[in-house]
Every structure is written in structure tokens, then in C-alpha cells.
Amino acid sequence: MKVLVTGGAGYIGSVLVPTLLNEGFEVVVLDNFAFKQNSLLECCVNEKFSVVRGDCRDKSTLQSVMKDVDIIIPLAALVGAPLCKIDPIATQTINYDAIKTLLSIRSKEQRILFPCTNSGYGVGEKGKFCTEESPLRPISLYGQTKVEAEKAILDAGNSISFRLATVFGTSPRMRIDLLVNDFVYRAVNDRVVVVFEGHFKRNYIHIRDVVRAFLHGIRNFDSMKDQPYNLGLSEANLSKLELCQEIQKQIPQFVFMEAPVGEDPDKRDYIVSNEKIEKTGYKPVHSLEMGIIELIKGYTLLRNSKYANV
Predict the structure, then answer these.
(1) Can you tell me the distance from the alpha carbon of 116 to that of 151, in angstroms, rounded to the nearest whole number?
(2) Which domains does the chain have, with CATH numbers?
(3) Least crowded by CB within 10 Å, which of 6, 85, 198, 272?
(4) End-to-end CA distance of the chain
(5) pTM for this structure?
């Protein structure tokens, strides 16, 4: 089978694409390489890999790369509330408009596996798990555009949506800004974190378990199609302070404190049930503890000191 991955050189794509190739799929990547990343260089030797430098919003480019593909995984997006706030026009055109263009081109036989976000739940009810039937009340432009794109994709049919928890873990195209990745980076390098509104809760998922979920969706497409699925670690519905405690178990010198004033611009606060996808036979295999240990090793290799003199 032939798979198109838009945004395939990003954080998730840089783990997903090599995995798909190793599983025997033919893979086409469309990416604009906005971050000058070289994370797919290892794939170039594989004859089943092809890559196009282009914009996912361009209809003619999409028509070209979508030809003869069986599966589409549209990873291309501006991801995260802070980035989307900086450039709301690009957020709208990439996260939603490009999806509408893609849907207008694709044939009904082409399958779509879409990465949504469980931040669409916004602020949940205290002590009550968000399920796929819970109301979607996104509080950021990022969440709004992803929820709108999910609705368009599911309405079009022959598709699956994964509502991703906050992803963590290392990738050849690393993102240090994600919450677990950020807190571990600060613990390794600064030994201290000041937490705003530390009681806010969310769910987490390892990047390689996200990739495993896409493979699971491909293999079980007929029984899973036209549905959304929460994708996270059921044992990791944690507050920010609880996350810091988990990191401290691996880095005892790590000190964290909650700020008495100030607020987090990301207001989402919810706990999530992942029971629906687990009933399909999928279970994550990477714990939060494993991810923290992995990140500590990763940050031994990586230093984000581009603009520092030390």
C-alpha cells in the first residue's frame, strides 16, 4: 500500500515515516521543511520513499502527491496554542482550509487517518472523564481548527481520527516545547521549574505509541473507520505538579514550585478516557517513566544553545 504523509518531516512524521517504510509501505512525504530539518535523511536510501518539497495548501501540489495513494495521513499543521496565536491566518489555512482542499480532491476509496487533539475538550468537568461523546469546547485557535478539521474528515467518511493526548518522547525532529519534553529539559539543565496553575490536568502519550496507533488503525481500518478515538496513557491523567513529581523520581535534584501569582495561557484542564481504543485491541507500551528516562538520555546529546555563548 502507498501512504501519503503531509508534514512528514515534523516531530511525529520523523518517527512515523521510517516505521512505515520498515513495515513495507511505500511512502510519499509532502513537507515545506520550514524548520530546515534533515530528519528524514536516513529514508532517502529506501527505494519506497519519495519526497516533495511543497505547501499542503496548494491544490495542484496536493493533486500530484495524492495520485495513486491508498492512505493519507495529514500531519501538516501549525501545532500548539502559542504558535497558532502568533500566526492565526496560517493556522486557519493550514489546519483547516488545506484539509477541505484535500477532501475535495481525494477519491472515496482513499483512506484518511487524522491526528486531532484531545485539547478540543477544553475544560472538563471535575472528576469526570472525557469520552469521545463528551462535548468539544476548544479554548484555543489550535484546538478550534483541529476540531473543525476532524468534523470535516469524519463527515466525509472512510476515515479515522485520533484525538492525541500531549505527546512526549524523542524524535529526529525534536520538539522541546511540549510539556513533558519541556519540563524534563528544564530539570536536566536548570534543575528547577516554576509551575503556573499546577492543578491543571491533562493526558499524555509517547510518540512511538502514537505511531503504533496509526499502524493499528491501518490494520483494523474497516472495524474502526468513521470514528474518533482518544489516544493517551490511561494511567497518565496527571496535573502539572504530579508530572513534576514523576520527573523528580528520576532526577532527585530537581526542584519545582507553584507560582503564587500569574496564570498559564493554556487553560485546558481535563482527564480523558482511552477505553474506546483499548477495546479495539490497542494498548500503549511506553510508560511516562520510560519516556522521562529516554528524554534524560536525549538531553545528554542535545543542547538548545543556538543563541547562547555557553
Answers:
(1) 10
(2) 2-170+204-233+273-285 (3.40.50.720)
(3) 85
(4) 48
(5) 0.96
Q: Among the residues of the chain, which ranges form H helices?
A: 13-22, 59-66, 81-86, 88-92, 98-105, 141-156, 179-189, 207-219, 221-224, 240-250, 275-278, 288-301
Grid cell 513533558 is found at 180
Question: What is the SS3 assignment for 289?
Answer: helix
Enter the C-alpha cell of residue 144: 478550534
SS3 state of residue 120 = helix
- Determine the Cα–Cα distance for residues 243 and 248; give it in Å rounded to an integer: 9
The CA distance from 130 to 273, in Å, is 6
The series of mean pLDDT values per 10 residues for the chain, 310 residues long, is 98 98 98 95 98 97 97 96 93 98 97 96 91 94 96 98 98 95 96 94 97 98 98 97 98 95 81 98 98 97 75
> Look-up: residue for cell 504558535?
83
Enclosing H/E stretch for 204: strand 201-206
